[in-house]
Amino acid sequence: MLTRPFLGSVAIARGLLTPGLLRGPRFRRLFPDVYVRSDVEVDLALLSEAAFVLTRGRGVLGGWSAAEVLGASCGPLGAPAEIVVPGRRRARPGLVVREEVLPDDEVVEVDGMLATIPLRAAFDLGRRPPLVEAVVAVDALARVGRFAPRDLVAFGYGHLGARGSRLLAAAVARADARSGSPMETRIRMALVDGGLPAPVLQHVVGPYELDLAHPDFLLAVEYDGRDHLTQERAMRDLARQAHLSRLGWDVLRSTAADVLLRPRSVAARVRSELVRRGAPAA
Question: What is the pTM of this model?
Answer without folding.
Answer: 0.93
